Amino acid sequence: MKFSEKKNLYDRIFEAVRLIPAGSVAIYGQIAHLVGCSPRVVGYAMHSVSAEDDVPWQRVINSKGKISFPEGSEGYDEQKAILKAEGIVFDEMRKIDLKKFGWEGLL
DNA sequence: AGGTTGACAAAGG
DNA sequence: GCCTTTGCCAACC
Predict the structure, then answer these.
(1) What integer best gives the mean pLDDT of chain A?
(2) CATH number of the domain that A53 lies in?
């Protein structure tokens, strides 16, 4: 029994994202694998998340280790601020070192 | 009911 | 290392 698969797919994705510990980040593909669907759906679900939801969507980034928002946008700035507050470090290219902060999942 | 879109990923050129 | 193509699956129009 992994997650509440009785719920909708989005809810499963949200739960998976909630499992990400502070100070770590996960890529879409990882979440997708956890819930058993394609990364696109994860991205769509993230966009569907509301501020009222208790989902740390900011800890979910793309496989390049970068924030999936266009730089200079509100979402980008906010997400970067939160991640920095959680201890995530950005390099010169504004990328996150997945070697250190990459979430190992349920490993 | 059907076509398009999407905060993506992996492989190929 | 960058751009293009393919796969992917659910939500949205």
Answers:
(1) 92
(2) 1.10.10.10
